[in-house]
Amino acid sequence: MDNYITEQELRREAIRRYLQGERRCDICRDLNRSWRWFDKWWHEYQCNPETDFSDHSRAPHLASHQTLPKIARAIISIRKARESGRTARTKFGFIGHQTIQADLIRLGHDDIPSLSTIQRILAKNGLTHPLGVAEDTAIYPWLTAWSANAIHATDIITRHLRGGAEIQNIHTIDHYSHAVHLSQHLDKTSNTICQHLLESWANLGVPFLHQTDNEGVFCGGHTHPRVIGKVVRLCLFCGIEPLFIPEYEAKRNYRIERFHGLWCQGFWSRLLFRSMTHIQKNIPTFADWYYTEYQPPVLEGKTPQQMRAGFKPFRLTAHLRKSIPSERLPITAGRIHVIRKVDPQGTMTMFNESWSVHKKWMGEYVWATIDTAQQQIDFWHRPDSESDWIHIQTRAFHLKEPVQKLLPEFYRNRARCREQLPG
Question: What pLDDT is recorded for position 3?
Answer without folding.
Answer: 44
